[in-house]
Amino acid sequence: MNKRDFLAVEDWSFAEIEALLALAARVKRGEVLGGLERKVLAMVFLDPSLRTRTSFETGMFLHGGHAVVLEPGKGSWVLETEDGVVMDGDTVEHVTEAARVLGRYADAVAVRSFPRGGDWATARQDAVLQQFARHCEKPVINLESSRRHPCQELADAFTLREKLGETRGKKFVLTWAWHPKALPTAVPVSAALAAVRMGMDLTIAAPEGCDLDPEDVRRIGELSTEAGSAAPAFVHDQAAALAGADAVYAKSWGPVSIYGQAETQRTWFDRYRDWRLTADLMATTRDGRGIAMHCLPVRRNVEIDDAVLDGPQSVVVDEAENRLHVQRALLLTMIGSTR
Amino acid sequence: MNKRDFLAVEDWSFAEIEALLALAARVKRGEVLGGLERKVLAMVFLDPSLRTRTSFETGMFLHGGHAVVLEPGKGSWVLETEDGVVMDGDTVEHVTEAARVLGRYADAVAVRSFPRGGDWATARQDAVLQQFARHCEKPVINLESSRRHPCQELADAFTLREKLGETRGKKFVLTWAWHPKALPTAVPVSAALAAVRMGMDLTIAAPEGCDLDPEDVRRIGELSTEAGSAAPAFVHDQAAALAGADAVYAKSWGPVSIYGQAETQRTWFDRYRDWRLTADLMATTRDGRGIAMHCLPVRRNVEIDDAVLDGPQSVVVDEAENRLHVQRALLLTMIGSTR
Amino acid sequence: MNKRDFLAVEDWSFAEIEALLALAARVKRGEVLGGLERKVLAMVFLDPSLRTRTSFETGMFLHGGHAVVLEPGKGSWVLETEDGVVMDGDTVEHVTEAARVLGRYADAVAVRSFPRGGDWATARQDAVLQQFARHCEKPVINLESSRRHPCQELADAFTLREKLGETRGKKFVLTWAWHPKALPTAVPVSAALAAVRMGMDLTIAAPEGCDLDPEDVRRIGELSTEAGSAAPAFVHDQAAALAGADAVYAKSWGPVSIYGQAETQRTWFDRYRDWRLTADLMATTRDGRGIAMHCLPVRRNVEIDDAVLDGPQSVVVDEAENRLHVQRALLLTMIGSTR
């Protein structure tokens, strides 16, 4: 099939992503009208969404198109994702048929599928997303998989440039935060990739043992080399890491080495309940004016304190708004036109 | 923030509401095309809906706009509504962020949030709606809260004028009806407000002890004075109340004095199972031709008998249709244009 | 009420259906633009959907209209379907009001309601669909009821002609397949009706005792006479039936004589687990090139083997795509224009 998916930002060239961000800036300034007339985006949500759904649905509409929102297992059929299986259990439709059929109705298909337990070796394959990409004859967009959240990554890159101007050589700290659940690693990996793509000096601050997928870590390193940024630093001292930061990205995730092990996770997490982005920590950033970022949804006073979220350093709402603009640019690039 | 919400009809001036009803009449006659091009309404339903959702979604479309429908806890994240809380429980996103972010994607945000147990002193604060209004930078529309159902109130006022012509001095009876559940008071309060706004003589017929919120009752009295209508009458004899009525509005609600007390409610309700709008009662209205109103959904043969709903005195379907027209007028007024 | 519903294909004349299929062909070739401007379709799903929902929503949009998707019991109220009932139980709204009100908001109302247990004598009445048709003042479209799936039937007829060219006198085999649940008979009956309408020689291959509704069988026979096709053959030998077939339609259903009897069904089904459409069976079709059809969703390696679904004889994805085109033609015919 001759088509171009958007499963990970790094699948596209630096030049392509730069063009996309430039288009997003024009879109945000209101300079791009139409371009998606008679175009349909089918969105398949295997997990909940507020921003992703609303921003894509709004983006399609604003340029003359339409988004159809499907929720398998709720309004539509439960999907089978294993190949070659005898489907005599609970699943009613195979992802193969869903992908093929939606590819006939829509001009692009967007899929959200978080990791679903089991072991990490399996979850990291992103089977649902990859199967959609393989079987759908139209371009597939990743709305967050086990491994990446590329639309968030675009928005984060766009927001860093918007807020910091020149990003090269500035300090970006991705800091782990406590959370009652072991969350996926797609967002922290994507945030790190966004920072090094922008030429920033990346520090990842997390408790000892809080590992990311080794291949993802390698990819972050490679991209920082390609982008000419400093080698990423991995540290365990949150306070030291945040000192002098230009941008702080707070995010919780579960260590991949204990992925899916509920009891071990609970014990591990209990030790780090104090990892929280506070106003005191934000005061130590560059000139006390470093920006605070988060992909949302955020648990207030658990991941980030009220004082930060409601204060002048938080850019989380602008960051969420930018989802809309980068996605409009993405859709115009993938299935539209930009006269 | 410099914006105009629509949380309660009485927040707007008499002249503004009159202008809105006049525009709704033009809309219903098909005289108003377009006016909402490139406009997006985000609708947040914390409770179910058929009429509200369909009429708003249709109204936006008919004038060139688009409505996004969100259901937190189903397709989107469970919302936290308390301020300052440490979000380490079940809620994933705070209403503050939802309101702020939706205000960036949409031109207006509409919210449905019924009372959810606890005590009436808390429920009557309408925290979810008020928080949306406070944190969203775009206008917020109330799709029914604990206290008001202002879109229904507009439709009721419009329907009274449409059906009765001159409404001033005519008799409007809001009669309580039995129901297997203790329902909210938003609709009966809004219906009473609609009637006195139209200058009608309001009688509220309900069993002894079936109280509404005292501040709401005071507000109904104040509005009847402002509108130059007779002082509302509160009676316990349903048959006597309905005699000679021009309009009868049947509606069940739970007494606010026993709000949230399941056992007490059950005992109280058991005594009044015979409060039901029957054809015999409707025959006693003015010339046997008084109109029967209800906001829908209605429990047949529990609140209102089949013979009434399927007979010539019922205007409930016209009343529901008018939701569409008043809301189109509301949207055009709040976020559109009416060339 | 002066309106035209689409509850079953055979309610329309041969000439009307031929015109519809001809329009669908023009639609598929991209020759028909617009025609549904300012038109609204309200879709009521009492059961899940992927193709039906996406194809109707896409179809409305492609011609300038809009589809509203409602799911009673999920986002909207639980519907009561019995007439005259005292609604003091779980149902909140009667289908009568839903049908009347949606008829005021929308230009057509489409309803999906599968059989829901009880006995077949009741289920075969299609009460929900019939009540919508009776109470809604706008045209009602059947999105699959207990008895018929007319949109699938149109797509099947269209696909047979598209794939086989001249259909008259060619061999169509509807073969039963095993399935872990006793499925409804709407699709097999509709598929059989599509085949005889196209003038094909119909064979229905199913295990002994696997009966369809007698009135539906009679209707298939009548239509084959009207269409000038051979009398349908009912056989129990799957392999013999498939030999030389031009088209094979695999579909599971529960015998209507044991409808709703879970234990009896289990015992009966256990005996026929080997009824499955395999590549070996497909090799026995005419020149080894007969087409394999299915309405989807399909249980892989239960109803049809991977080798068939992923092989060159399968037309199931084209068949699903054709849903879109026949439905666009249907909507243009029922509520639109075809300049």
Characterize the structure shown.
3 copies of one chain form a homotrimer. By secondary structure, chain A is α/β, with parallel strands linked by helices. Chain A has 2 domains: 9-148 and 323-335, Rossmann fold, CATH 3.40.50; 152-319, Rossmann fold (3-Layer(aba) Sandwich). Chain A is 40% helix and 13% strand. In chain A, the strands form 3 sheets. The first copy, chain A, has a 5-stranded parallel β-sheet. In chain A, strands 2-1-5-6 form a 4-stranded parallel β-sheet, sandwiched between helices. A two-stranded parallel sheet of chain A has the order 3-4. In chain A, helix 6 (150-164) crosses helix 13 (316-335). The longest helix of chain A is centred in the last third of the chain and has 20 residues, at 316-335. Chain A starts with 13 loop residues before the first helix and ends with a helix. The mean pLDDT of chain A is 96. Chains in contact: A-B, A-C, B-C. Chain A binds chain B through residues 45, 48-51, 53-55, 57-58, 61-62, 69, 71, 74, 180, 296-302, 306, 309-310, 316-317, 320-321, 324, and chain B through 38, 40, 42, 66, 68, 70, 72, 74-77, 80, 84-89, 92-94, 96-98, 100-102, 104-106.
